[in-house]
User: What shape does this take?
Amino acid sequence: MEALPLSEPVLLILLSLAERPRHGYSILKNVEEMSGGRVRLSTGTLYGAIRRLLDGRWIERFKEDDSSRGRQAYRLTSQGRQILRQEVSRLKQLTRVASLCMAPKET
Amino acid sequence: MEALPLSEPVLLILLSLAERPRHGYSILKNVEEMSGGRVRLSTGTLYGAIRRLLDGRWIERFKEDDSSRGRQAYRLTSQGRQILRQEVSRLKQLTRVASLCMAPKET
DNA sequence: TCCAATATGTCGTTGTACGACATGTCGTAT
DNA sequence: ATACGACATGTCGTACAACGACATATTGGA
Assistant: This one.
């Protein structure tokens, strides 16, 4: 498995799906909420990313009981969850390094 | 000031310069070291990023006492340092959210 | 019945990352 | 002397992700 620096949009999408399966629009709103309103994904970004995540088997389609509308739910695959864990741990490592670099020098 | 999700290469370059002024090749080696050998920037990535960082006044050229060779050192501007602080705090926020999302549910 | 929110998707543009290529210097071992 | 690896800086083309703009359709409420 290669070293993969996930982009912020993709990371947030995966985190959103880590909680529970969601459909596209729900991801959009949840990402906005999670980021405190800072990140508002465009649908272009969202559905492009979903396409790539499906192709890579990081997420999969998920049948909702409420499929009354054209809604399509997605959920993490176990592989996707594993990658996400990896990525989050990379991020924590990065923040540790960052804190060291920016700490006031001396003793 | 806009919301800016820094890419990993750019973030590491800035962190490298947060410690002390460096020239290009030194950044290259330091980034590799900081990331535990995981991130090895290509020179294309490095000098492309340096160009953009100079243009945006996030970094500036810095005269080294040892300018015997063609070496050109760079350092963070105060603006660059401020943005870096912002970005690191954004990253910490992100890891906090991530931990919440991936925590085992209940109570 | 109009309108906002919900919901999904495509397309073209823009910019970044990156490998490949090009060039030159310095110090050291042969 | 010279060949070689590390040091050092840069350009170019390609591939791909992000994103705004656009297109469409449904649902619930004022």
User: Anything to note?
Assistant: Strands of chain A lie at 22-23, 59-62, 73-76.
